[in-house]
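User: I'm designing a mutation panel for Putative transposase and want to avoid disrupting the core. Could you give me a predicted structure to guide residue selection? Please restate the sequence first so the numbering is unambiguous.

Assistant: Good idea. Sequence first, for numbering, then the predicted structure tokens:
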Amino acid sequence: MTESSDYESVQVFIGVDVGKDTHHAVAINRSGKRLFDKALPNDENKLRSLIS
């Protein structure tokens, strides 16, 4: 099985630590600069606004 990856075109990487009461999101660019680092409430609308 061959897997195709478009990794080279990715400019921002996002990680989300999901918790029961709060979440934490971090976004970094290809050089490792932190673009976003914030605790977020466990609220669907606020999380959707983050990724849209």
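For picking mutation sites, this is relevant: The first helix runs from residue 44 to 51. The beta strands are 12-18, 22-29, 34-41.
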